[in-house]
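Risk register update: the risk of archive-format incompatibility is retired. Evidence:
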Amino acid sequence: MEARWPGSCCAARRSTTTTCCRDGSPGTGNLSPPLQWAEVPGSARELVLMVEDPDAGKTPFLHWLVTGIDPATGGTDEGAVPVGGREWPNDFGGTGWSGPHPPQGEEAHRYFFRLYALDRPLELPATPHAPDVHRALAGQEIASGTTVGTFYR
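Archived output:
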């Protein structure tokens, strides 16, 4: 399975046209980036999208978790929830997308956009963190795709 991120929001340092960052600077809107995927197995019953920053501390920081995505879709638009998707709490304390916001002056953080194809719904606690999602996915994924962006301030 292939996952692509056609935008450039986290490909480099934030510019004034970036829309997916969290800091609220002029020209930013904290919108989820557009994503595309392909080659989803026919046996997939749902897709799970997880965006995490493994450079944020001892455990990866969860920026976005969406389950129940319709496997017949080929992606999602900027600022949109994927078709059929349910957004979960993120590690900022909100629900849904919350974009990059590493501490100022740190090295660039990596943002992993992971898409998983599953043959049955994923069972998660009410407020999952990245390690909970990885544990729940163990042995359930039938295919996956990952794309990575970087961001620093």
